[in-house]
Design goal:
Layout (H helix, E strand, L loop, with lengths): L22 E3 L11 E2 L5 E5 L12 H13 L3 H4 L6 E3 L6 H8 L3 E5 L2 E3 L2 E4 L5 E2 L1 H13 L7 E5 L17 H6 L6 E5 L5 H16 L4 H16 L12 E5 L8 E2 L1
Parallel strand pairs: 1-11, 2-12, 3-4, 3-5, 5-9, 9-10
Antiparallel strand pairs: 6-7, 7-8, 10-11
Helix pairs in contact: 1-6, 3-4, 6-7
Length: 258
C-alpha cells in the first residue's frame, strides 16, 4: 500500500478522470456494505489545527473553511433541510471530548499540519494528537453516548503515509487506529498538500456529500479537477495523487440524509 496506485488515473483519457473511484480496504476487513440511508442530517465538524509551528509553513486554514461555507450557502434551500451548516472550532487536546459530545458530527474534518513519523496532528495548544489518542478519544465519546463519525477527513500532509518499518500490506497508522472504532471510511493524504489543493478537495468532497454521494465520489472529482489544474505538469504537480480513501467494507453508490 505504500505505492501511489492513484497515479494510474493519469493513463486514462481526461474525460474519465472524474469517474475513477479508488478505495483501499483495511487489512482483515470484516464489515459489509455501509448504510445508504442515514437517520440524521449531514453535519460536518471542522477541527482546525495550528496554522503554523516551529519549522512549519503557515497554512491558510481560514480560506479552506470559507470555501466550505460558500459551498453550503450555494445549496438549494430544499437541500439544506437535510444538511447542517458546517461548524469550525479550534480546540486544544483537553477540549476535544466535550466538543465531540456536544456537536455529534456525522463527518469529522481536520485541517492543519500533520507529521508522518511519529504520526500526529498538530492542535492549537501545540499538542501532537497521535492515532492512539484519537482512537481512545472516539471510544470515550461513544461510551458516554456520543456518536462515532461516519467519515473522518484528515486534510493534512502525509496522514496516509505508511508507518516506519511497516509491512507492504499494512494500512497507515491513522487508518489502523481509527478503522477499528466504527468509522466507515477515512480520507487522508499520502503526499504533502498545498493550500490550493486542500481548498479544491474541500469543495468537491463537500459538494459530493451534499449531493448524496459517498466519500469516494468527492475524491474522484477533486482528483480530476487537480489534474486539470496541473495540465501538462502532472509529474511535477503531484497534488492530485495525494488524496486517498480507506474504507471498512463497501461504500454505497448513494447516500440519503434525513
Amino acid at each position: 500500500w505504500e505505492r501511489p496506485w492513484e497515479a494510474i488515473v493519469s493513463a486514462l483519457d481526461f474525460s474519465r478522470w472524474d469517474d475513477v473511484r479508488l478505495v483501499r480496504q483495511i487489512e482483515r476487513d470484516t464489515m459489509d456494505h455501509h448504510p445508504s440511508e442515514l437517520d440524521d442530517p449531514l453535519s460536518i465538524l471542522c477541527l482546525q489545527g495550528a496554522a503554523d509551528g516551529p519549522s512549519l509553513d503557515r497554512l491558510d486554514l481560514e480560506a479552506e473553511f470559507k470555501v466550505l461555507t460558500a459551498a453550503y450557502d450555494a445549496l438549494d434551500l430544499s437541500v439544506r433541510h437535510a444538511i447542517s451548516q458546517p461548524i469550525m472550532v479550534k480546540p486544544g487536546f483537553a477540549e476535544l471530548e466535550a466538543i465531540l459530545l456536544d456537536c455529534r458530527p456525522t463527518v469529522l474534518w481536520f485541517s492543519g499540519h500533520a507529521r508522518p513519523n511519529p504520526p500526529g496532528l498538530l492542535l492549537n495548544d501545540g499538542h501532537w494528537l497521535t492515532p492512539e489518542e484519537f482512537s481512545n478519544l472516539l471510544q470515550q465519546v461513544q461510551a458516554k453516548g456520543g456518536r462515532t463519525p461516519l467519515y473522518i477527513i484528515l486534510l493534512a500532509c502525509e496522514t496516509g503515509s505508511p508507518g516506519r518499518f511497516a509491512s507492504p500490506t499494512a494500512a497507515p497508522p491513522f487508518i489502523n487506529a481509527l478503522g477499528e472504532d466504527g468509522v466507515a471510511a477515512l480520507l487522508v493524504s499520502q503526499t504533502p498538500l498545498s493550500d490550493v489543493a486542500a481548498r479544491q478537495i474541500a469543495i468537491q468532497v463537500f459538494t459530493a456529500l451534499a449531493s448524496g454521494r459517498p466519500l469516494d465520489h468527492g475524491v474522484a472529482r477533486a482528483r480530476g479537477e487537480l489534474m486539470r489544474l496541473a495540465g501538462a505538469n502532472l509529474v511535477a504537480e503531484f497534488d492530485w495523487i495525494g488524496p486517498v480513501v480507506w474504507s471498512k467494507g463497501y461504500l454505497p453508490p448513494s447516500l440519503s440524509w434525513r
